[in-house]
Amino acid sequence: MLRGRSLSVTSLSGFPQWEADKLPVEDLLLFEVSWEVTNKVGGICTVIQTKAKTTADEWGENYFLIGPHFEHNMKTQVEPCEPLNAAVRRAMDAMNKHGCQVRFGRWLIEGSPYVVLFDIGYSAWNLDRWKGDFWEACSVGIPHHDREANDMLIFGSLTAWFLKEVTDHADGQHVIAHFHEWQAGTGLILSRARKLPIATIFTTHATLLGRYLCAANADFYNHLDKFNIDKEAGERQIYHRYCMERASVHCAHVFTTVSEITAIEAEHMLKRKPDVVTPNGLNVKKFSAVHEFQNLHAMYKARIQDFVRGHFYGHLDFDLEKTLFLFIAGRYEFSNKGADIFLESLSRLNFLLRLSYFLISHQMHKSNITVVVFFIMPAKTNNFNVETLKGQAVRKQLWDTVHSMKEKFGKKLYDALLRGEIPDMNNILDRDDLTIMKRAIFSTQRQSLPPVTTHNMIDDSTDPILSTIRRLGLFNSRSDRVKIILHPEFLSSTSPLLPMDYEEFVRGCHLGVFPSYYEPWGYTPAECTVMGIPSVTTNLSGFGCFVQEHVADPTAYGIYIVDRRFCSPDDSCNQLTQFLYGFCKQSRRQRIIQRNRTERLSDLLDWRYLGRFYQHARHLTLSRAFPDNFHMELMSLPMTDGFKYPRPSSVPPSPLGSQASSPQSSDVEDENEDERYDEEEEAERDRLNIKSPFYLSHVPHGKKKLHGEYKN
């Protein structure tokens, strides 16, 4: 036994920091339980996948993931193997002998963690008995018509059974079980009800009721302490799910959530203050060439430009080299994801850009900016839009025509030069060539406007995005400087329309816009940051709060944070419009500087740093579950970790700080910009800053919750 092992925390320069005394992983078994292990449903799968390598490096053979078994996922993502750990092997054998089907293997992702997968359908015959066990454990009944909740009960019952078998054969090893979201929570409830000797952690990535209330346009953050929780859950017919979630929270030794804003929400919705905030990270890969990500941006931008050429054929009266590509992506939650405020701000941006274009054209200048905005939000469709497919076909046909003519011209030019002659350009082009070119020009003409959607929408008349586009009049007319393209399908490199993976598409864009009202963390702006693409987020997203805490001037680093918490909807919309207009006013040099700074923030989001918050949660749960074997010397830690990226000192201090009064052309530089910007000096200072220790922390006790926020 590990009597009295000290999990000590000391103070360094006034801030607490973990010592080198790490957990004795050789004496521990760590199980992470989630419905999204090898089964991508949402963002939790991204959390587990990206964190797996860091955790596997630390825990080695003593780290296991538990999830559901689906044959199609097993065949494509898991390499079957036999468990080396005796306790896990005996637990699987015992369950398989009693009519279960438990699979084991390595998940084929970075880190190759072990996975234990339960076949839910194979054990469904136990459902009625397990419903009775669950009622006895926590007095929560699950209706027969809720298929998802019934599946979660089967999954949780199998998990609790497995953990009991493991602890029976653990041979002195202590077990930590980390449960993600209410779907895995039944296993936690049953484990605690049966008094299994395990240390438990429960992480909520978003509260059930919070998501429902925000989707219903409730004045959520302004009434957090006023909601009748039981009534609201009952009216939405999710009371049993809410009870499962709340029971999981209160049964866990340690309760964590992913952001400060969600911690405040959880305290009101689930009636327990989180013990630790565990921000979500990513696996950050640095290129050997410092500016390789800039080269990738140029390469993938060219591919997006090709798509735009086809989509806007016949109306391509704007310069693609002076066109900015913006996008929003995620689940189709019109209000929660901020698509409503984004469309409204695009209408206002269109007015400002049209006004600037009018003034520029009357001054006889040629420079103007056009903005093409992509909405990548999956919705119900029945096929590609015929007009969109035709546009890509016209573009490809024109490209083939030009290439054939180029070869013909090249041969004539080659022969003339071999003869020592300067070719007569009138002879280079004959009548047939002119006819072919005229036919090509005629083929690019069309009477209709470019479509605002790439697919045929099933609910076209009631679709929120299309309805708002109609109301605002953003129909991609020639005079519009903001063009809209709704792509209601996830991106894929095999698509005949826009053959790009999501990562490639993001790298080719100039700005990601995610003005979410409800976003417990927000992986989309975090992914943009890691790829060196500026983004817009809000102070109601976990990522936005995290950046505000750690970066002195987020805008200078390409993170625009819209205030949706303390401003009225109209003020928030105006602020977003100003951010977008300010971005359009940047010169190409300013955008390059900003992308360099954005990419340097990726170290802040690396699991090698953020994984320490999970380490802290494991220390804490061991000290609570096994106080005789583990104890912590310091339990009260501040929320902030004492680290903050400084405001860049070089010019431009913020791209908004040195802009022209009207949008810049992409190839025009601001003559007033001097050479005080030192890329290497800034990068070195940021590298030194990120090496500063991260300080692990609890949620602040006694901190006042600020209300009076407006629903945006």
Average pLDDT, all residues: 86
- Helix/strand structural class: alpha/beta
- Cα distance, first to last residue? 55 Å
What general outline do the C-alpha atoms trace?
elongated
Number of helices: 23
Q: What's the story with the biggest beta sheet?
A: 9 strands, mixed
Task: Report low-confidence residues grouped into runs of 5 or more.
Answer: 1-21, 633-640, 651-655, 666-675, 691-712
Strand order of the largest sheet: 6-7-8-5-4-9-10-11-12
- Give the DSSP E fraction (strand runs of 2 or more residues): 5-15%
CA gyration radius, whole angstroms: 29 Å
Work out the number of β strands.
21
Q: What percentage of residues falls in helices of 4 or more residues?
A: 40-55%
InterPro entries: Glycogen_synth
Protein name: Glycogen [starch] synthase
Keywords: Allosteric enzyme, Glycogen biosynthesis, Glycosyltransferase, Phosphoprotein, Transferase
Organism: Heterocephalus glaber
